Amino acid sequence: MMHVGAPLSAPFSLGASSPRARRRASLLPKLTRRRSIMASMGDDPIREWILTEGKATQITRISPIGGGCINHASRYDTDSGSFFVKTNRRIGPSMFEAESLGLSAMYATQSIRVPMPYKVGPLPTGGSFIIMEFIEFGPSRGSQSVLGRKLAEMHQAGKSSKGFGFDIDNTIGSTPQINSWSSDWIEFFSEHRLGYQLKLALDQYGDSAIYEKGQRLMKNLQPLFEGVVIEPCLLHGDLWSGNISSDKNGDPVILDPACYYGHPEAEFGMSWCAGFGGAFYSSYFEVMPKQPGFEKRRDLYMLYHYLNHYNLFGSGYRSSAMSIIDDYLRMLEV
């Protein structure tokens, strides 16, 4: 029996000359580095995900990527490939959660290419992040014809049994976009698209003129949809030139969605800054046939985005929005 305080026998010695001690001493720098890495990963959830669930063992480079005015975008290069990361230091995860749901819904249609979302979460110092697939873009936006066909295939494949709306509210730019479900498209578009933007203009600018005229228009939209079968289709929701690209193979890629299920013609509401040409529309309508009165409704869907730009960027867009409202009031004689 060993008495407390009795000296240890030589084979169990932990002195400096012990082989075990030497091995332990040689491991200390590695253990220290590992603890340091684990601690830094805990402070950086982006790095933590990439080095665990992302299957990487090393991040080789982080490069900023130019983009929108709302979020900061970066490319993370690793030994298991590259990731695209967006961060926002002011807004919590809800915005990126909505984007992730939209990307996942579009991805599930297996039609047009979109980046696959991987992870959304909060940042320790406030704000949020989203990690997604990095897509290497080609030198151009690709073929207008292919873009039109692929977009139509997405609209054709992405259906909803719940009606018009989406499972979560999202944003159009930085403006909240309400997606509460409705069985009636005209009601949904009037209340959650035009009505929301008109009320925002009234609250923000005191613009009672555009609000009152817009309300008159909202109550008289039915004649624009006579003879039209409206089936809820999955929409990108914010399709302008900055959200359209192509991959290295020339196949179209669409980004930064504001998804919801709606009338497919609403997808063209940003056509005034999307650059859609004749080849785009010809290919689109080969898959999704043009419905009666399409031309009469085009400006109606543009109005939503002009109003949003008015609310986001100021009075430079007011005249375009008011002109569309006035034209419709004359056309509908209300």
From TrEMBL:
It holds the Pfam family Fructosamin_kin. One of its GO terms (cellular component) is chloroplast. It comes from the Eukaryota. Its EC number is 2.7.1.172. InterPro entries: Fructo-/Ketosamine-3-kinase, Kinase-like_dom_sf. One of its GO terms (molecular function) is ATP binding. Keywords: ATP-binding, Chloroplast, Kinase, Nucleotide-binding, Plastid, Transferase. Belongs to the fructosamine kinase family. Initiates a process leading to the deglycation of proteins. Phosphorylates low-molecular-mass and protein-bound erythrulosamines and ribulosamines, but not fructosamines or psicosamines, on the third carbon of the sugar moiety. Protein-bound erythrulosamine 3-phosphates and ribulosamine 3-phosphates are unstable and decompose under physiological conditions. This is Protein-ribulosamine 3-kinase, chloroplastic. It comes from Musa acuminata subsp. malaccensis (Wild banana).
